[in-house]
Amino acid sequence: MAALAEHIGVDPKTVERWITKDRVPYRRHRYAVASLLGVDETYLWPNALTKEQVTSASGSEIVTIYPHRWAVPRDAWGRLFADAASEIGILVYSGLFLAEDTGAQRILADKARSGVRVRILLGDPDSPQVAERGADEGIGESMASKIRNVIVLYKPLRGLDNVEIRLHSTVLYNSIYFADDQILVNTHVYGAPASNAPCWHLRKIPGGEIVNTYLESFERVWEGARPLQPGE
Questions:
Q1: What is the DSSP letter of 70?
Q2: Per residue in 138-163, pLDDT tens?
């Protein structure tokens, strides 16, 4: 308690009141504590911000909106992953365009070797959810074939430490690609391939809630997915 008080420049009794009497600190102190602990201030004080403040902060999380995934500059994917310091996550049905990008694969491998955790979620090619998505896009069984192709393309990554690949059986409303606090969200639209659907570039900021919503969704899918087995 004393160390925390000294770090943010307040009296230890002030910190004690925050803890024992549920006092809400001034925002500059909330931000300092949250930064020190590596969490969002709304995690520590969920009722501290007004709805207007949350709305304003969440709006500021939007960096760019692309009308289609194919409109995202090719180097934007590389920059996203290259900037990762601790974690990279990919949630897709197939994400074939990314698996075919040797430059992106090289970045993922280099990041894993440097200690960054890389998690990849692919659709289970034998699941009814993948079959349904193939029907929605009008490509039928080709969706499952694309996933099996991606599994083969990711073979060089599968042997690396810090790389985990799982298969999910989830109805996805979005594909998610994140690196630490930055994220690209590719929406899914009925009857259209993911490449033709909009893509949001978001960056997490204190008080915002959009990025956290997508990251929490990723974690729920990850928890219910099964590890890709050797030989698959």
A1: G
A2: 888 889 999 999 999 999 998 899 99
- Where b means 16+ CB within 10 Å and e means fewer, 99-113 reads bebeebbebbbebbe
Q: For position 59, what pLDDT does the model report?
A: 47
Helix (H) or strand (E) holding 15: helix 12-20
Instruction: Read off the DSSP letter of residue 209.
Output: -
How many C-beta atoms surround the C-beta of residue 121 within 10 A?
25
DSSP symbol at 230? T
Q: Which residues contact 2 (CB under 8 A, 6 or more apart)?
A: 12
Torsion of CA 197, 146, 202, 117, to 10 degrees: 180
Of 207, 209, 146, 214, nearest to 179 by C-alpha is: 214
Question: H or E stretch including 176?
Answer: strand 174-179
With H, G, I as helix, E, B as strand and everything else as coil, classify residue 182.
Answer: strand
Q: What is the CA radius of gyration of the chain?
A: 20
Instruction: Give 69's DSSP letter.
Output: G
First to last CA, the chain: 51
Q: How far apart are CA 91 and CA 142, in angstroms?
A: 19
Residue 32 host element (H or E): helix 27-37
DSSP 104: H
Look up the pTM and report it: 0.76
